[in-house]
C-alpha cells in the first residue's frame, strides 16, 4: 500500500507541475490555497486540455526530492510546494518557475532530531502551503510554520511552539483570511484552532475545541485532518470547521464561537463547502446501539447561534456505500 501511494504521489506532482495548461494556453488565475484561491476546488481557467499522459500536453517536468503530499500553489510565475526527508528530520519549501520548471528556491525550513509520529501512508509534508503577493506560508504541523519572502527566498518569521500529538501525522492545511493565517492543531491530546498575524506570526486568537464532547472519545478519535472554509452570513465572515465531534462556526477575526452542530465520535477528514446559502460537511463516524458505524452528509443553514443541531439542519443523508479503513 505504501509503495503504491508513494508512486501515485509522484505522478500527481508530475501532472500538476508539468501538465502546464496555463503555460501553454495562457495563465488565467492564481491557485493560492488548498482547493484553490476560493477554497472551493473550482478553477476559473477554461483553456485546459481534456487529455494528457506522460508525453501529450506536457510542457515540463521536474523531480522533487524527499516526500510530501502537499499540493502545489501558484502565484504569478511561481509554483511552491513542501517536501520532507522520509525520516522527518528536515522539512523544506520548494519553488519552481511556472513557465520553465526551473527550480528557483530550495529552502530548509526546519531541522530536528525528535520527530512526531505518523501513519505509514502519511508524510511529514502533507499540508498544502498558501501564498499571496510577496509571501508564502508553509506549515508542517507541530514541527512548525514559516513565512517566506517569495522575491528573495528569505525566511520572514517562524513558529515552532504550537504543538499537539499528531499520532498519525498532520493533514490540515493553513489558510489565509485578510491579515490572518489560520491553522488547525487537532491531535490526540489537544485540539485547537489558532489565528496568527500573517506579517509577524504572532497569535491573534486561539479557540479550543469544546472538551465536553471529546472526553468520551478514544485518543485517535479526537483527531481531525480538515481544512476550514470561510462563508459570509448576513455581512459577517464565519470560519466553518468540522472537528471529530462537533462542527463549529467561529467569527474569523476574533475566534468567538457563533454556533455548533454536535455529532460524531471519530476523526474527520473532508473539507466542508458552501453553496446556495447552505454549509455542507461530513460528520465523523457514529456508532448506533444496533448496526454498523455510519457517517452523514449534513446541509446546515449557517444563520443561527448556539447549539443548532436540532434547528438548522436542512437535510441529512447517509452514504449508500463507504469503506471504513481505520488509520
Task: Indicate the topology.
Blueprint: H1 2-18, H2 21-25, E1 73-75, E2 78-84, E3 90-97, E4 103-111, E5 130-132, E6 135-139, E7 145-149, E8 155-159, E9 175-177, E10 180-186, E11 191-197, E12 203-208, E13 229-233, E14 236-242, E15 246-251, E16 257-262, E17 273-275, E18 278-282, E19 297-300, E20 306-307, E21 313-317
Parallel strand pairs: 16-20
Antiparallel strand pairs: 1-2, 2-3, 3-4, 5-6, 6-7, 7-8, 9-10, 10-11, 11-12, 13-14, 14-15, 15-16, 17-18, 18-19, 19-21
Protein traits:
2 domains; five-stranded mixed β-sheet; 7% helix; Thrombin, subunit H; Lipocalin; 327 residues; disordered C terminus; four-stranded antiparallel β-sheet; mainly beta; 2 helices
Describe the structure.
Helix content is 7%, strand content 34%. With 327 residues, it is mainly beta. The longest helix is centred in the first third of the chain and has 17 residues, at 2-18. It is built from 2 helices and 21 strands. The chain has helices at 2-18, 21-25, and strands at 73-75, 78-84, 90-97, 103-111, 130-132, 135-139, 145-149, 155-159, 175-177, 180-186, 191-197, 203-208, 229-233, 236-242, 246-251, 257-262, 273-275, 278-282, 297-300, 306-307, 313-317. It folds into 2 domains: 1-208, Lipocalin; 221-327, Thrombin, subunit H (Beta Barrel). The chain is globular. It has a 5-stranded mixed beta sheet with strand order 13-14-15-16-20, with no helix packed on it. It has a 4-stranded antiparallel beta sheet with strand order 1-2-3-4, with no helix packed on it. Strands 5-6-7-8 form a 4-stranded antiparallel beta sheet, with no helix packed on it.
Amino acid at each position: 500500500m505504501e509503495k503504491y501511494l508513494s508512486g501515485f504521489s509522484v505522478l500527481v506532482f508530475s501532472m500538476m507541475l508539468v501538465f502546464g495548461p496555463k503555460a501553454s494556453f495562457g495563465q488565467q488565475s492564481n491557485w493560492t490555497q488548498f482547493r484553490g484561491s476560493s477554497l472551493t476546488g473550482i478553477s476559473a481557467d477554461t483553456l485546459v486540455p481534456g487529455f494528457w499522459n506522460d508525453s501529450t500536453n506536457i510542457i515540463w517536468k521536474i523531480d522533487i526530492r524527499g516526500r510530501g503530499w502537499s499540493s502545489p500553489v501558484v502565484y504569478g510565475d511561481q509554483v511552491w510546494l513542501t517536501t520532507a526527508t522520509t525520516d522527518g528530520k528536515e522539512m523544506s519549501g520548494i519553488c519552481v518557475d511556472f513557465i520553465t520548471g526551473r527550480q528557483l528556491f530550495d529552502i530548509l525550513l526546519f531541522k530536528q532530531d525528535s520527530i512526531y509520529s505518523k501513519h505509514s501512508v502519511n508524510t511529514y509534508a502533507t499540508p498544502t502551503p498558501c501564498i499571496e503577493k510577496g509571501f508564502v506560508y508553509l506549515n508542517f504541523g507541530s514541527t512548525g510554520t514559516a513565512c517566506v519572502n517569495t522575491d528573495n527566498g528569505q525566511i520572514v518569521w517562524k513558529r515552532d511552539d504550537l504543538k499537539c500529538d499528531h499520532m498519525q501525522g498532520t493533514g490540515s492545511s493553513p489558510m489565509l483570511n485578510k491579515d490572518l493565517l489560520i491553522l488547525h492543531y487537532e491531535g490526540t491530546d489537544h485540539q485547537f484552532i489558532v489565528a496568527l498575524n500573517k506579517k509577524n506570526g504572532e497569535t491573534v486568537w486561539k479557540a479550543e475545541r469544546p472538551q465536553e464532547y471529546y472526553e468520551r472519545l478514544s485518543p485517535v478519535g479526537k483527531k481531525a485532518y480538515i481544512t476550514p472554509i470561510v462563508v459570509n452570513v448576513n455581512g459577517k465572515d464565519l470560519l466553518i470547521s468540522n472537528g471529530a465531534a462537533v462542527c463549529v462556526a467561529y467569527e474569523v477575526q476574533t475566534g468567538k464561537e457563533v454556533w455548533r452542530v454536535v455529532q460524531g465520535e471519530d476523526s474527520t477528514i473532508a473539507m466542508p463547502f458552501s453553496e446556495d446559502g447552505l454549509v455542507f460537511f461530513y460528520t465523523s463516524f457514529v456508532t448506533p446501539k444496533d448496526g454498523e458505524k455510519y457517517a452523514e452528509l449534513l446541509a446546515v443553514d449557517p444563520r443561527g447561534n448556539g447549539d443548532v443541531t436540532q434547528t438548522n439542519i436542512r437535510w441529512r443523508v447517509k452514504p449508500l456505500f463507504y469503506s471504513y479503513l481505520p488509520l
